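Thread: Newbie trying to understand structure tokens

Hi all, I'm a second-year student working on a class project, and my supervisor (Dr. K.) asked me to get a predicted structure for one chain before our next meeting. I've only ever worked with sequences, so writing a 3D structure as a token string is new to me. If someone could post the tokens and maybe explain what I'm looking at, I'd be very grateful. Here's the chain:
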Amino acid sequence: MKKRISLFLLSFHLSAQAADLPGIPPFIDAMVDKHQFRRDELQRAFQLAERRQDVIDSISMPATLRPWVEYRPNFINPQRISLGVRFWKKHERALRRAEKIYGVPQEIIVGIIGVETMYGNGTGHYRALDALTTLAFDFPRRADFFRDELEKYLLLAREQGFDLLSIQSSYAGALGIPQFMPSNYRRYAVDFNGNGKVDIMREPEDAIGSVANYLKHYGWRSGEPVALLANVEDAGRMGSIGDSRPYLAWKEAGVTTAERQTGILPPAWVLDFTVKSGKEYWLVFNNFNVIMRYNISNFYAMSVHQLAEAVRQRAVQ
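---
Reply by user tm_fold:
Sure, no problem. This is what the structure looks like when written as tokens:
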């Protein structure tokens, strides 16, 4: 017997706006034909869904549009570092096991979860169905992407037995402690605590294993750095800093690591960040780009790296 999606009917706050958005009737047809959903259940779900203008506003003005000096303090601050140390100590065994299995350092897993949801303390205050429906049918620039995520969310809800209308998400429809989009939840989330279910909504160990699995899938290289602060002799000598070059080529262009390194460094790019004192230069490596598969933003990846390092330094004291 096929599972039926569950509708959370404690609230009957109807909104004609969402149900009337162009494209919903053919989307329902496709879900019925392709995945054998019940038409009446989907029709009722979309009658209860709301079009959210604040979702459109939020995705149209992401936090990364702010300068680095304003963006960084939101994630690298005493509260988030202290909570990160507490999270690490509480889940040390799971983090150590994830590092051993997937090759992703414990502090990077902590950094991702810390930036995403402050270690599970802020997993979103939008109904996932509202957010995904709004973006799928009223955000033309990325409608195809969000229509696919809405499809995956409905499948996920059926597979996991979610109350379809009670699941909270970010404004973009990201779910749970590590903020996986529905497609990534279905593809990369793992039952890391071995209790027979995959639950990144409420179970930190599953979130830990899932983050590590995701990063490994996208090419995390164990033992390689993420980013290293750099000294630049003459910015004019560097040429295009977006080019990947061997470290020796960067040295010839006057770019060196701020701290002495042992061994041979892998190829790197150079990024510059505007700080209060001027320009700050970083050599960034493959693993930095892997973090950006989570969120395509230099600011995001650097925040994960710096939070991870800050938590690691505090945790080992």
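A couple of things are worth pointing out once you decode it. Residues 8-16 have pLDDT under 50 and may be disordered. The radius of gyration is 22 Å. Feel free to ask follow-ups in this thread.
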